[in-house]
Amino acid sequence: MERNKGGIVRTLSPAYAGREGELTAVLQYVYQAIMLSGCGREKEGKIILKIAIEEMRHLEKIGAIIVSLGVPPVFTACPPYPVAYYSASNVDYVRQFPLMLEADIRAEREAIACYDRILRTLRDEEIRGQIEEIRADEVHHLEIFEEMRRDLCAQPPTQDPRA
Fold first, then answer.
1. Which of 143, 161, 157, 156 is nearest to 47 (CA)?
2. What is 5-152's CATH number?
3. Where in the chain are the domains?
4. pTM to 2 decimal places
């Protein structure tokens, strides 16, 4: 199958280094894991760190696809051009655990929608298979965050405003 390499790269770029992309998820979840571990929520921090590692694998997988298409995996919204570099301002730096969960649920829903858009336009079956696997992981992450929110709602309120 002949590949439209430039079109594929432009289609994948939001999932790679866009606002709702894998790089944002990695940074946001690592930030949250550190914050949570620092305020007595080590269990939740470890769960979120595990998700961050899975998001890092997604980032690597999409980056490898981009490289296989002959384009450097630059963290930019406009590949293959080295402009509009990624900004860490995309990360939601909330400090309260309930707000973190809301941000994470919103981020996972946006990621799923992003992968749905990609799958609607992408015709390359090999790459589609990889994107479908990543999308399935995002659905699983959403389920984890929703379960964490349900568990949090069932707990009595805490005195620590960061928790």
1. 143
2. 1.20.1260.10
3. 5-152
4. 0.90
